[in-house]
Amino acid sequence: MNAEYLLKAENISKTFPGVKALSNVDFCLRKGEIHSLMGENGAGKSTLIKVLTGIFEKDNGQIFLGNQQINPGSAEEAQKLGISTVYQEVNLCENLSVAENIFIGREPLKNGKINWKEMYLKAELLLKEKLNIEIDVKRTLSSYSTAIQQMVAIARAVDISSGVLILDEPTSSLDNNEVKKLFEVMRNLKSEGMGIIFVSHFLDQVFEITDRITVLRNGQLIGEYQTNQITRTELVSKMIGKEWGDSSHFHKKQANKMDQNNFLTTNRLEKKGSINPINLSIKKGEVLGLAGLLGSGRTELAKLLFGIDSADEGVLVIDNEQIKSMNPKLAIEKGLGFCPEDRKVEGIVGELTIRENIMLALQTKKGIFNYIPMKEQKVIAQKYIELLNIKTPSMEQRIENLSGGNQQKVILARWLATNPNLLILDEPTRGIDVGSKSEIRNLVLNLAAEGMSILFISAELEEMVTCCDRVLVLRDRYQIGQLEGAQMSVSNIMELIAEGAGVIEASI
């Protein structure tokens, strides 16, 4: 491999209001290499890519393309310099032809008009020579599979780029055969001297296709490693921020005298491209944890159980009743509550008051024609403001004016008001202060002690060990094992995430 740096970033920093997204980060890409950029949520990967491609302006630092210092002010300017990006969601026009998508804005002209014959020929040659794909480029993009659309996006990026290709989660919607095809294309481009930045949460894919790995955590550079010189275990430790063998200093959850009857079970429940077949059960009064890296399928499974996404195959049973087609309204009726991972986007309604936010789910459960009287609303809202110690001058305060921890408590109050049998908590303590974290953890333990079932998702492994009766471990959208009792430790969870081989489909 040529040791010359194709793209180099030095001391890159970027701050948003209240958030240091990048802090003096270095990154370099060589010609003819595939370099993985890895890290969990909030690590700074997306911010770094957007700085490199001109979408965000850096606060300080330098970027070099070859020997030239650059400062792209837009994605278009970055493309002209030779840096192209293909994002997870294909950003093309499905109503246009394949050829039009590849050359949109750069169509070959003849006498001031588009030369369609030349454009079709150039598109066919580009796809065949660079990607080894032969398709009808006159057909609309929408008539082709997601995998082909992804390839068309890459073809466009390759044709624009003179050297740097950034692939942001390109395999998230592809099956195994499609991934192999993409990897063949990547290897061919690498052999031609192109530098490829590969962003993925799939460990096996990273170890299969990349030459080097750069790890970011909380906006800081953790290190750069040769792929063949770092183990999966070491990589997971760098990403999570826990050294191998660390033990939790938290007080472990005491075993509940839980009901041995299952409240919810699944049998090979799956959604293609989202989560592979899952077998799980949650007993009444049990806290079941879902552990895994970002992209492992934790949130996807939660959304499947609550009916936000629809299953393609498998069986879902709630309280001994088989559910043929789940949806959020039915989930609420069956006693499920769901606190989503991104409270600002999927949780709170910022323009509404605390009282209105708390009442949303209960009003849905009762039905639109059974309006809850204002007096009753205020009694319920006040009850949970006091129970959860929500700090606010008034229940009529707009929720967007609260701190993150208090917003999270309001979302919890919303679902507790429905008196749920199963509460799904997706990262309930992320981004909130230490005091609020402790209060929410204690609330989880108390609710379980009172007989409520909890599905608890967290990237903080000590939190899992503290709060959960069992932990189900996911990796690359597969269920790979579970831990309970004396086996349930931070080290053992990390070992399963990092080294779990194959797929264990035992009934949980």
For the secondary structure, the number of strands is: 22
- Give the amount of beta strand, in percent: 25-35%
Order of neighbouring strands in the sheet with most strands: 6-9-10-3-11-12
Helix content, binned percent: 25-40%
Number of helices: 17
Estimate the mean pLDDT confidence: 86
Largest sheet: 6 strands, mixed
Q: How would you classify the helix and strand content by structural class?
A: alpha/beta
Low-confidence sequence ranges: 244-252, 501-508
Termini separation comes to: 47 Å
Estimate the global geometry from the Cα principal axes.
globular
Radius of gyration: 25 Å
Quickly describe the structure.
The chain is of the alpha/beta class and 508 residues long. Helices cover 35% and strands 25% of the residues.
Which SSEs are present, and which pair or pack?
Blueprint (H helix, E strand, L loop, with lengths): L4 E12 L2 E12 L3 E5 L6 H8 L7 E6 L2 E3 L4 H7 L1 E4 L11 H6 L5 E2 L2 E2 L1 H16 L14 H15 L3 E5 L7 H16 L3 E5 L3 H7 L2 E6 L2 E7 L5 H9 L21 E10 L3 E9 L3 E5 L6 H9 L6 E6 L2 E3 L4 H6 L2 E4 L3 H5 L6 H13 L7 H14 L16 H13 L5 E5 L7 H16 L3 E5 L3 H7 L2 E6 L2 E7 L5 H10 L9
Parallel strand pairs: 3-10, 3-11, 6-9, 9-10, 15-20, 15-21, 18-19, 19-20
Antiparallel strand pairs: 1-2, 1-4, 4-5, 7-8, 11-12, 13-14, 13-16, 16-17, 21-22
